[in-house]
Design a protein that fits this description.
heterodimer; A: 281 residues; mainly beta; Immunoglobulin-like; Jelly Rolls; 2 domains; five-stranded antiparallel β-sheet; 2 helices; 18 strands; B: 920 residues; alpha+beta; ten-stranded antiparallel β-sheet; 22 helices; 54 strands
Chain lengths: 281, 920
């Protein structure tokens, strides 16, 4: 289960990349994330009816064959939220778990992450503004079986780093980012997590996180003869640069990154002109 | 004797006639007594009892206590039993409606512990039963099997039903496999459902059961006889290119598009053939304008009359048909509200009885905000729409229809579906509905009754990438997969199973050109690739390779968006040949390493094609065996197309061979049918010029080899021993049978090119070089027979358009073979005008003449063929390009009309390789 509040990540380069043992530096990275705006994000707290507090369920298709329930175990904790569809063929079956998220800020980018286990039917998430003057809808369909074997087959043809999708019989991580438009006066959104246009099967959801995408990074670099450290995106665009004093052994650098979804890496240069690249996890 | 009291009494219906009435709640199908049929009220587990009134060898009458009469037609065979159940009400005047579930159950030995439910394989344990209660993505057959035996149960392909329910349970002693479906029985229409139950040999697991199913219902797994054979090729859009007067001929030659998804060629959804009294000028103007043709067909501010619109449409299809088979677009459930209002019963209703709206949907701009869902069948809309379809066939030069959204997306509770009473289902509240998947079936069946120019109208359906229903696919002639195999990858096999041996098409880009919304269906993280051009290019290559490998595995062609990709383009001939040969679920190939390879089998007997690809990133060595019995009743040798010799051993009905395939290696192999002594060691090799050499230390009396699609470019011509002794060849249905002398250890099968060239290519086409054509003084004259046929006229136009198309493409885009017709500049059409004359009128012309026509159209020239040329044209070649230098004549000729086109295509392929001296 993902903890709400500040998530902390420590990275010692030497410990995860033995080939780097000869590196003239050590890098320790701490990332601080925005608090989780989702309440009861792991569906652990249940009401007297056994349903998760803070969450509602909308049976949009008004079918008795679409059933919300809490199941055990979850991805990390004891519980998870399930939507089960029973044995009637009806492509219009859809429904979702919903929570209204307040204190959203105009013009800010948000990061959403959760875990999904699904069988036979598709998982989808909706984000819909609750109030405000500008409509905002984001519908992201994620296909599950029978589309899932792509994750097994595609790495034969392309770099597996670019393959995504749902694995069978496993928790799958879903993540994405969206922005609340400027001057939209949107302060709340409805986060809907469910399934759409499907039939017999189930979707189980757990560990929902929604918070500002911006995150703080604290870097401690230890080594001598270092000239510069910079942050690049995966695509090679330079984001930030910090000059280093070659004569100082331990130096700190604090900065903010705009996204959790985008991949970043460090490039460190020493006075001899050597360059080192390390992924920012 | 009549039994008054019973609990579970079973009547066995088999060969002998029963002349008395029997009470029973199940009927045994077949003599061994392990297969039974029962009828249940919905949601009840106790079967309805009834009285068996008559029972003969193949028909029975079973009168249920709930007022339903069941007629059973039973055909028993050595492997199983087929049963057609027809239900109606005893009281023909009754308004009663019975909601029932019919189910066939089979008891089997406990060794069959693997369950395939029509979608996925699961292993049975004694703990809990396994079931699948899903119509979508489900082949209507389930089976259980062990290592030695299997049994399949399902719904017959000639049925149309709205629900499928397979269930298997086991204890230590036996397995119970059942298959059921819901039925709504009333006096509106007799309800008919077929069950099939059969044993199979699970040599390739559940694939054997599907193979048997295809064999039982072959007509549902191949196109309707008589439809345009061009539906087998690459599909695409022409986009109303006739405004560009024939520019489509050469781009289509290059991207190999052979059929067109002719998108929404009408002015209102449902008014599929606008008639003179329909609509108004504004609508016609809007339609022509929206198709991007206003600039060439309408003056600014001009209103378009019905006549102008009509002529526009007629010209469009006449033009399109010259290049491809136009399939007229319909979305059969999406109808404009103006049309629905004339037939209010047809409007879809939800479970609460509210009229369903589909206002956001509309295939053309004029329909947006005005459309609704409509169920034509069972209302007056049926006759209205069928008439429109018929008029479209009568008035437009089309080869059939393309149905969009033929997958299952909505249920209709309205009065029309209730009345039409086919494939009805009912919900948890007992309300009756029909899924929209049934509508394309009804329309397709009607369209197959229509013909134009002797061709049966074809139906190509878009099954999308979800919501596919087998019964819908069974009534199509071809199936569109609306994406690439990287999108919803597992669904590709689902839809290939449903389409069987019919054409299928990947309607997508290897790249993510649909944008981020669509990319959500993809297993590639395109969003993250957006700003990563180098990786994106590598992914594009990989995805194109994945598309190619999937196409070779399943015999699926693609859209023009993909067909010109350099990874795919060289394989288009092969992929089309695979489709035409027809896919098999069983590969017939086993052995060590086979699990790492992708193997496809297509066609039968001597016309079989086997594709083997290595999708892995490392080489794969395989020791493989081809099981001959899957191909036919003879022995079979494999002939690889790759130029590498293949050693193989034929023994006991198996052909054993070893392969080592590099990463992403591809081998395509044809088969030779050996008759007589069926054992020995062989080696086959195909030389660069297409000849096949067969070496054998033993002898074999005869073999049969397909002349058709031989190596996709050549045809079989003659057979000789290594010593050059010609062998007698007999021909039948494009297959060649050769009897071999006992002492022949090496046989050479000589290939003849598809098009015979009388001279080297350089000399052959000199009179048609750009320099000659650009100068009016040296431009050749085109000569056609007096009564030129369609293909000759098209070939003539292709010659006239070759330089306008290529020079325009080169000048505007910097390269030849641009495929986007709408980007061409019509000004080029008037450059380099060719004069066309008949032979008589052309006789006085002193310059070069290009004769275009069939062999028998120019008998004086044909008389000058050499003996070898005559023989080649008689037995193998489809056409020739022959130079008569003394007469200054170049003849682009064919054995028949199709051969003329093939010969012309050969010329253009040669010309494409030459440098075009025009500065872009």
């Amino acid at each position: 289960m993902l903890k709400s509040g500040i998530g902390v990540f420590l990275l010692m380069i030497a410990s995860w990349l033995p080939a780097m043992a000869g590196d003239p530096f050590k890098l320790a990275v701490q990332r601080e994330y925005s608090p989780n705006l989702i309440k009861n994000s792991g569906f652990e707290e249940l009401d007297t009816a056994g349903m998760p507090t803070e969450w509602g369920f909308d049976n949009c298709s008004r079918s008795k064959y679409i059933r919300p329930e809490v199941v055990s175990p979850g991805a990390g904790g004891r519980h998870a939220a399930k939507i089960g569809l029973a044995d009637r063929d009806n492509p219009e079956l859809y429904g979702y778990w919903v929570q209204t998220v307040r204190n959203m800020q105009e013009g800010r980018k948000y990061y959403l992450a959760l875990k999904v286990w699904n069988k036979n039917i598709n998982f989808t998430y909706w984000i819909q503004n609750d109030g405000g003057k500008t409509p905002m809808t984001l519908i992201v369909p994620f296909f599950s079986p029978p589309g899932d074997i792509g994750t097994e087959v595609l790495p034969k043809f392309i770099d597996s780093n670019w393959v995504r999708g749902f694995r069978k019989n496993a928790w799958n991580a879903v993540e994405g980012e969206f922005e609340v438009p400027e001057k939209s006066e949107i302060t709340a959104i409805a986060l809907r997590l469910g399934c759409y246009a499907s039939t017999q099967g189930e979707v189980v959801i757990d560990d929902v996180y929604l918070g500002l995408a911006a995150n703080r990074v604290k870097v401690k670099i230890t080594g001598s003869g270092l000239k510069e450290i910079a942050v690049y995106t995966e695509t090679g665009a330079r984001v930030l640069t910090q000059e280093l004093n070659p004569n100082v052994v331990t130096q700190n650098w604090n900065f903010e990154l705009p996204s959790r979804y985008t991949g970043y890496c460090f490039r460190i240069e020493d006075v001899k002109g050597h360059s080192y690249q390390r992924k920012l996890e | 004797m009549k039994i008054q009291f019973f609990t579970v009494l079973t009547i066995i219906v088999c060969g002998s006639a029963n002349l008395w009435s029997q009470k029973c709640d199940q009927v045994k199908l077949g003599c061994d007594g392990t297969c039974v049929l029962q009828i249940f009220p919905d949601n009840q587990n106790r079967a309805v009892a009834g009285t068996l009134r008559q029972s003969s060898a193949d028909e029975s009458l079973w009168e249920l206590d709930n007022g339903v009469i069941c007629r059973l037609r039973i055909i028993e065979s050595a492997d199983g039993v087929d049963c057609t159940l027809t239900c109606s009400l005893r009281d023909r005047q009754s308004d009663a409606v019975k909601l029932l579930r019919s189910e066939v159950r089979k008891t089997l030995p406990p060794t069959m512990n693997t369950f395939w439910d029509g979608f996925e394989v699961r292993t049975l344990s004694s703990a809990r039963p396994l079931s699948r209660k899903k119509l979508m993505e489900t082949f209507p057959l389930a089976c259980v099997y062990g290592s030695q035996a299997g049994f399949a149960l399902g719904i017959s392909a000639d049925s149309i039903t709205g629900s499928l329910n397979s269930l298997v349970s086991t204890d230590n002693r036996q397995i119970r496999l059942s298959y059921g479906t819901r039925m709504v029985v009333d006096n509106r229409r007799e309800q008919k459902i077929g069950f099939t139950a059969f044993a199979f040999n699970p040599e390739f697991g559940w694939c054997n059961a599907v193979e048997e199913y295809y064999a039982k219902y072959p007509q549902y797994f191949q196109p309707t006889p008589g439809v345009d054979s061009r539906i087998y090729g690459v599909g695409g859009y022409l986009g109303y290119a006739h405004g560009y007067a024939g520019f489509e001929l050469h781009p289509r030659r290059y991207d190999r598009m052979s059929w067109e998804w002719a998108y929404a060629p009408w002015v209102m959804a449902g008014d599929w053939y606008p008639e003179e009294q329909d609509g108004n000028e504004k609508i016609y103007t809007e339609e022509i304008t929206s198709r991007g043709q206003a600039g060439t067909l309408l003056k600014p501010g001009e209103k378009c009359s019905w006549r102008k619109y009509h002529d526009f449409s007629k010209e469009y299809f006449q033009s399109s048909e010259r290049a491809v088979a136009p399939l007229y677009y319909l979305l059969v459930k999406n109808i404009n509200g103006k049309v629905i209002s004339k037939f209010p019963d047809s409007g879809f209703r939800d479970a609460a009885g509210n009229l369903g709206s589909n206002k956001d949907s509309g295939s053309i701009t004029a329909d947006l905000g005005h459309c609704g869902w409509a169920f034509a069948y069972g209302s007056g809309l049926q006759a209205y729409l069928e008439r429109k379809i018929r008029l479209a066939v009568e008035n437009y030069q089309i080869s059939g229809f393309s149905f969009d959204m033929a997958n299952y997306s909505i249920n209709d509770y309205g009065p029309a579906q209730l009345k039409y009473a086919t494939a009805r289902n009912f919900d948890e509240d007992g309300k009756i509905y029909t899924g929209d998947f049934a509508l394309p079936i009804f329309f397709a069946d009607y369209i197959h009754t229509l013909k134009r120019d002797g061709k049966t109208m074809a139906v190509y359906m878009n099954l999308a990438m979800n919501g596919a229903v087998g019964f819908t696919a069974f009534h199509a002639d071809g199936l569109m997969y609306e994406g690439c195999p990287g999108d919803c990858t597992g669904q590709v096999l689902v839809e290939r199973l449903m389409s069987g041996r019919k054409p299928m098409n990947f309607w997508g880009f290897p790249d993510n050109c649909f944008g981020d919304n669509f990319s959500q269906y993809s297993a590639v993280n395109w969003a993250k690739l957006k700003n990563h051009p180098q990786a994106r290019e590598e992914i594009r290559q990989g995805m194109a390779q994945f598309l190619l490998f999937s196409s070779l595995r399943y015999g699926i062609t693609m859209q023009t968006w993909s067909s010109t990709h350099p990874v795919i383009h060289p394989w288009l001939d092969v992929i089309t040949a695979l489709q035409k040969a027809g896919w098999h679920p069983t590969t017939a190939v086993k052995g060590a390493g086979s699990d790492l390879l992708w193997i496809g089998r297509f066609g039968n007997g001597p016309e079989t094609i086997i594709t083997i690809t290595n999708p892995e990133r490392v080489p794969v060595k395989a020791e493989l065996t081809l099981l001959n019995s899957y191909l036919g009743n003879a022995g079979y040798l494999l002939v690889p197309e790759c130029g590498q010799p293949l050693k193989q051993q034929l023994r006991n009905g198996k052909t054993s061979f070893a392969l080592e395939l590099p990463p992403k290696g591809i081998v395509v192999m044809r088969t030779m049918e050996i008759t007589g002594r069926l054992a020995g060691n062989f080696e086959t090799v195909q030389t660069a010029n297409g000849d096949i050499i067969i070496k054998t230390p033993t002898t074999f009396p005869a073999f049969k080899l397909s002349g058709r699609f031989y190596d996709f470019r050549h045809r079989l011509m003659a057979v000789s021993t290594a010593a050059g002794k010609p062998q007698r060849v007999s021909r039948e249905n494009d297959c060649f049978t050769v009897k071999i002398p006992a002492d022949a250890a090496e046989i050479i099968v000589k290939a003849c090119p598809q098009i015979v060239l009388s001279n080297p290519a350089d000399a052959l086409l000199a009179c048609f070089r750009y320099s000659a054509v650009a100068d009016p003084n040296t431009r050749p004259l085109l000569v056609l027979p007096e009564k030129a046929v369609r293909e000759e006229l098209i070939a003539r136009d292709m010659f006239a358009l070759y330089y306008p198309t290529n020079v325009c493409s080169l000048t505007k885009f910097g390269h030849r073979n641009t495929t986007d017709v709408n980007q061409f500049d019509p000004a080029y059409l008037t450059k380099w005008p060719f004069q066309t004359l008949t032979p008589q009128a052309a006789s006085g012309h002193r310059g070069w003449k290009i004769y275009i026509g069939r062999q028998d159209a120019f008998p004086q020239l044909a008389a000058k063929f050499t003996t070898k040329e005559k023989e080649q044209l008689e037995f193998a070649a489809e056409g020739m390009v022959k130079l008569f230098p003394n007469e200054k004549i170049l003849w682009i000729g064919g054995r028949d009309a199709a051969g003329v086109i093939a010969a012309a295509q050969c010329c253009f392929s040669i010309l494409d390789q030459t440098k075009l001296n025009v500065k872009p």
